[in-house]
């Protein structure tokens, strides 16, 4: 899969072909969910809360994408090695729920503290950085 831009259309080129034209298809990719990990997981754990499990099942049942990517993130309070492992385990857990729901998961990556969306200088900002992002791959509307 690779990024493609042509004639004002951009997206991910995959080995799927349009059944009508036989041409390769470009896909729309967007971040369709960002959920704070405080809601999804128990503190300092990759075990889902009941609320997190329910939210994820409902999300994957209704999102309507043909495939997903899952990215895990942490704040900077622990070591880089620990945060990388925790974010990867959390992303793996979310991907597992997706697969149990019948979804195709194309990519699962833990970024640890390496891609913050806010400075890690306050409790409120650190909470923003503790998140799981779910990217949806969809066919463009004709």
Automatic annotation (TrEMBL):
Lineage top rank: taxon: Bacteria
Alphabetical list of Gene3D superfamilies matching this protein: OmpA-like domain
InterPro entries assigned: Bact_OuterMem_StrucFunc, OmpA-like, OmpA-like_sf
Name this protein carries in UniProt: OmpA family protein
GO cellular component terms listed in the entry, alphabetical order: membrane
Keyword presence, Coiled coil: no
CDD domains linked to this entry: OmpA_C-like
Source organism phylogeny: Bacteria, Pseudomonadati, Pseudomonadota, Alphaproteobacteria, Rhodobacterales
Alphabetical UniProt keywords: Membrane
Domain OmpA-like: 28-140
Keyword Transcription regulation annotated: no
Entry-linked SUPFAM superfamilies: OmpA-like
Species, as recorded: Maritimibacter alkaliphilus HTCC2654
């Amino acid at each position: 899969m690779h990024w493609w831009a042509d004639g004002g259309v951009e997206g991910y080129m995959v080995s799927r072909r349009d059944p009508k034209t036989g041409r390769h298809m470009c896909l729309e990719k967007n971040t369709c969910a960002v959920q704070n990990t405080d809601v999804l997981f128990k503190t300092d754990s990759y075990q889902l809360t009941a609320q997190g499990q329910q939210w994820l099942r409902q999300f994957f049942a209704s999102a309507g994408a043909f495939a997903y990517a899952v990215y895990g993130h942490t704040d900077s309070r622990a070591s880089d090695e620990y945060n990388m492992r925790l974010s990867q385990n959390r992303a793996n857990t979310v991907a597992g729920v997706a697969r149990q729901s019948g979804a195709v998961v194309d990519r699962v990556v833990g970024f640890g503290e390496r891609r913050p969306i806010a400075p890690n200088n306050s409790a409120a900002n650190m909470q923003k950085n503790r998140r799981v992002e779910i990217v949806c791959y969809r066919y463009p509307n004709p």
